[in-house]
Design a protein that fits this description.
Blueprint (H helix, E strand, L loop, with lengths): L8 H4 L1 E5 L2 E5 L9 H25 L7 H7 L8 H4 L5 E2 H7 L4 H10 L6 E2 L5 E3 L1 H16 L4 H41 L1
Antiparallel strand pairs: 1-2, 3-5, 4-5
Helix pairs in contact: 7-8
Length: 192
């Protein structure tokens, strides 16, 4: 039996929010709490905490992800083919951000971090990206998001091996097109 003589009765009842469940803790002996009931309550609270910890562990694993998980996390960017891309001289930042499934703030951040990005700005201050800038953004996206380079590492890699990086990107793009075609073909064959 546990008594709280320090606090008044109203202060002895507190709500502690544990995730989605609210648990009332009343350790006032005058209310009829028994050691058995307290033990059951503590076991219930312990099991609730254990379930919450397990769900957190499932959601955010520490350490390196498997290649399958990394592949699933990569968002396929939808940039038009070169013939369509080079048909216009300039693209607004909002359109470019939609192609990369990113916020415009991320595109502006990359512009500040990488010297190869030099979009034009109109009198209003809006950024207008040339097709060459979009290709460079695609290369930066590939290094940062798909190959998991740090910003400093990607900056150094582009400085040292820009031509090689562009060739690697073209190879990866052609292979990914083949992969998506084969996956689509497999899905169609499974349906039949």
């Amino acid at each position: 039996m546990v008594q709280l003589n320090i606090f008044e009765e109203n202060e002895s009842k507190k709500n502690f929010n544990e995730g989605k469940k609210t648990v009332d803790i009343n350790k006032d002996a005058s209310k009829g709490s028994t050691p058995r009931k307290e033990k059951e309550d503590s076991e219930t609270n312990a099991s609730v905490r254990k379930e919450q910890n397990e769900s957190l562990n499932r959601e955010s694993r520490r350490g390196r992800k498997s290649y399958k998980e990394m592949d699933a996390a990569i968002v396929h960017i939808e940039i038009p083919d070169d013939s369509v891309l080079f048909s216009k001289s300039y693209y607004p930042i909002s359109e470019v951000a939609q192609w990369f499934n990113a916020n415009t703030s991320l595109i502006r951040f990359w512009e500040n971090e990488f010297s190869i990005l030099k979009p034009r700005k109109n009198k209003k201050g809006d950024r207008l990206f040339r097709p060459e800038d979009v290709k460079n953004l695609q290369l930066i996206y590939h290094l940062l998001r798909e190959r998991k380079f740090s910003i400093e590492g990607a900056r150094q890699y582009l400085k040292d091996h820009h031509a090689k990086a562009m060739e690697e990107l073209k190879t990866v793009q052609s292979l990914s097109k083949i992969k998506y075609f084969l996956l689509e073909l497999k899905a169609n064959l499974d349906l039949e």
